[in-house]
Amino acid sequence: MVKTKNLTLMVTAAVFAALTCVATMVVQIPMPLTKGYVNLGDVMVLTSVWLIGSPWGVAAAGIGSAMADLLTGYAYYAPATLIIKALMAVAAFYIAKCFMNGSYFKSLVGKVIGGTVAEIIMVAGYFVYAIILYGNVATAAAGIFGNAIQGAVGLIAGVLLTVALEKAGTKKLLGFDK
């Protein structure tokens, strides 16, 4: 029998995977040179892992992001997206966790540092994947600016959304504050 907390974690992770997928799909700005797109999915990648932790938040981030690629015709990016977004979530979570037992300000700094490292992983990961996919550094480099903008927006909005949800008592409501 599944314990109530485990069931809550699984269901919450599934909801966050769906929200990540939708956030990725709702706003897509095509990047013709790399045949990819800029999106808002990183907001939910960061929020999911900061609210529900690892491994469930990592799974939600990777699966939700990869599902968006599959559902919107970018299946050739899905394997890389699964790995890159999961690595982002791992970095964001564990770096932020190092700051969690301090003050509110220290926790916020941890999220900013963790999110920044996560977004660097995203930009670097898609750069390397584009080199592998297209065999051309110039084509891969063309995606850096769009990915950096996506990362900056994802970081700022992810921190703001997470802080708002924490202030609203979401973690306590779901039983994740213990």
UniProtKB/TrEMBL annotation:
GO cellular component, one term: membrane
UniProt keywords, alphabetically: Membrane, Transmembrane, Transmembrane helix
Record-annotated membrane-spanning stretches: 6-31, 43-68, 74-96, 108-132, 144-165
Stored InterPro entries: ECF_substrate-spec-like
Pfam families to which the protein is assigned, alphabetical: ECF-ribofla_trS
Protein name stated in the entry: ECF transporter S component
Gene source species: [Eubacterium] siraeum DSM 15702
Source taxonomy: Bacteria, Bacillati, Bacillota, Clostridia, Eubacteriales
